[in-house]
Design a protein that fits this description.
Chitosanase, subunit A, domain 1; two-stranded antiparallel sheet; single chain; mainly alpha; about 170 residues
């Protein structure tokens, strides 16, 4: 069951993240995590040079990206503790914003200390909220997060379209 849920979530995220891009003004494309710092290697399938400086980003395959996402993202996020509808939402946020930021969004949505660690308190409180309510609260946190990003004027329309699609997908997952 868990692997099937991962496959569905992965396929959806890859649909958002797309292929290779290497814009000089995107900090994720630089191995140093800042524009102009390190090597400009780009981003592909959401795998960035900033997070994976030793990977040949341009030649990354979908299968290699899938292994990275499962090992470095799905398992550490403890997706086995989430209902499938929330698995995708959490996974998508983690890929888009980083694991710690996504976890903090979840924690704010459920009203616990936002320390960025999925621990026993976060899991306990998460189970108390009905999944549809949790998804709505979580996406509200994501939207709020997006609006505070300096490049919102340039990329905000695309981000909001992503959130609209995530809401539609949530209706299919329940």
């Amino acid at each position: 069951m868990l692997l099937k849920d991962f496959e569905m979530s992965f396929d959806r995220v890859i649909g958002h993240e797309g292929g290779f891009q290497n814009m000089a003004g995107d900090r994720g494309n630089w191995t140093g995590g800042k524009v102009g710092v390190g090597l400009q290697k780009g981003t592909k399938f959401g795998i960035s040079a900033m997070s994976y400086p030793d990977i040949d980003i341009e030649n990354l395959t979908v299968e290699a990206a899938k292994i990275i996402y499962y090992k470095d993202w799905w398992l550490p996020l403890q997706m086995n503790h989430f209902k499938p509808a929330m698995q995708y939402q959490m996974f998508d946020a983690a890929i888009n914003h980083g694991r710690v930021s996504a976890t903090k969004m979840l924690q704010r949505a459920i009203g616990v200390n936002d320390d960025g660690i999925i621990g026993s308190q976060t899991l306990k409180e998460k189970y108390k909220i009905e999944v549809n309510d949790l998804i709505l609260l979580f996406i509200a946190e994501r939207i709020s997060f997006f609006t505070k990003i300096q490049t919102f004027d340039a990329y905000g329309k695309g981000w909001m379209n992503r959130m609209a699609l995530n809401l539609k997908l949530a209706t299919q997952d329940n």
